[in-house]
């Protein structure tokens, strides 16, 4: 999906400020053509005060928070960031900067660290295209101060060499995915394993954030629903991936041929049951 870098001056939390400032001011239903914006504060150890249009909107705002989605009128908002003990926005440490929102898009703005640990921000365009019946979407985003990573399921890489701030999008049957994150080419987890619920008709977005060197790597999860199509059967998923529907299943993903064997076994059982029922009649 499309993504673009935001000037570093916004990185520490200016994007998050927009959501907090407007959440109480906007009507519950948005006008057609408004933008949808979610914001994630993923810069560890950085507490700030945030002003939007010169009004204090977030006081002593801490990392790890996800806000939104908010339906926002298209337009430009002035954002300034100050030290957490500032009296007002007259002497901002960062900004003020103008944040322009276009109509019709669905975005997540993430304040995070670069691979080498510098504060930055990335604006992602979320995939809201319609999903086939029975499928969910899993989006994995690398926003951590860490080298390229592999995403593992059942001990095998299902996403390889994912670098900050890139993403990978997978469409697969709805279920629970047990996943872990490891340095590229290795299988020792630096995050996880963790169970991620990939619901039907939902884009489940998983963010790896924090710092490997500082030992505070973590996952954040965002969901975007309402992506259903008309039910017409359950497809097999992309790239040979099938999510397990058993939350406690440690294998997480069934890969390729194993999934076909499970499907064949289930079909055989169903046919035998039908034959027995007919004979009884």
Automatic annotation (TrEMBL):
Short name of one Pfam family: DUF4397
Domain of life the protein comes from: Bacteria
Signal peptide range: 1-30
Transmembrane segments: 252-271
Keywords: Membrane, Signal, Transmembrane, Transmembrane helix
Residue ranges of domain DUF4397 in the record: 35-151
Keyword field contains Signal: yes
Protein's name according to its UniProt entry: DUF4397 domain-containing protein
Taxon lineage: Bacteria, Bacillati, Actinomycetota, Actinomycetes, Micrococcales
């Amino acid at each position: 999906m499309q993504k673009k870098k935001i000037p570093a001056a916004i990185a520490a939390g200016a994007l998050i400020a927009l959501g907090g400032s407007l959440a109480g001011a906007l009507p519950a239903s948005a006008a057609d053509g408004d933008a949808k914006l979610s914001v994630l504060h993923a810069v560890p150890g950085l507490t700030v005060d945030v002003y939007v249009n010169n009004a204090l909107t977030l006081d002593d705002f801490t990392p790890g928070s996800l806000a939104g989605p908010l339906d926002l009128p298209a337009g430009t908002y002035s954002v300034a960031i100050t030290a957490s003990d500032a009296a007002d926005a007259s002497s901002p440490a960062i900004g003020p900067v103008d944040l322009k929102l276009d109509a019709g898009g669905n975005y997540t703005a993430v304040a995070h660290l670069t691979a080498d640990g510098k504060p930055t921000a990335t604006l992602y365009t979320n995939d809201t295209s319609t999903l086939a019946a029975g499928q969910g979407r899993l989006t994995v985003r690398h926003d951590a101060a860490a080298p390229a990573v592999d995403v593992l399921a059942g001990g095998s890489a299902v996403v390889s060499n994912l670098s900050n701030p890139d993403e990978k999008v997978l469409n697969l049957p709805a279920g629970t995915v047990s996943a872990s994150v490891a340095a590229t080419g290795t299988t020792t987890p630096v995050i996880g394993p963790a169970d991620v619920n990939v619901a039907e008709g939902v884009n489940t977005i998983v963010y790896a954030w924090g710092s490997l060197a500082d030992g505070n790597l973590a996952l954040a999860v965002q969901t975007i629903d309402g992506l259903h199509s008309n039910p017409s059967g359950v497809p097999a998923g992309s790239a040979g991936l099938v999510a397990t529907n058993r939350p406690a299943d440690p294998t997480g993903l069934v890969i390729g041929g194993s999934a076909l064997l499970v499907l064949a076994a289930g079909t055989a059982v169903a046919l035998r049951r039908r034959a027995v029922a007919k004979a009884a009649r």
